[in-house]
Hints:
Layout: H1 2-37, E1 42-51, E2 54-61, E3 64-71, E4 75-82, H2 83-114, H3 123-132
Antiparallel strand pairs: 1-2, 2-3, 3-4
Amino acid sequence: MWEKVYTITTMIVMVILIILMAYYATVLISKRSNIYFRGKTVKVLERIVLSTNLSITIIQAIDKIYILAVSSKNIELLDVIEYEKWHEYKKAQSLTDQQDLLDIFKRSFFNKKFGNKSPNTNPIKNNNDKKGD
Length: 133
């Protein structure tokens, strides 16, 4: 009885160890392959997968940004943007993302502090208005 439990436990531990080793090996290989395959003038900035065989890829080549539609059979150029415009867009997107996070934080804070009131109302201002009446 105990032999079977020991055998099953040992097998489970070995499978977990093999999975962990495979995971860390792929992480290590991906880090090393990025060093070897990284181009000095061409970089893939973003890749958005639309389906199993279609994706939108954004590539920087020197000072131009190329937006490509990549499928299993062909690559099509959608647009070319100057690097400065791309940088401005990413900067604005980052600020928008930060503002969205701030809005989410405000909503959750006000909901916890003041119940289910609308997040656009300022509870301090509403209390002052009531005192003035």
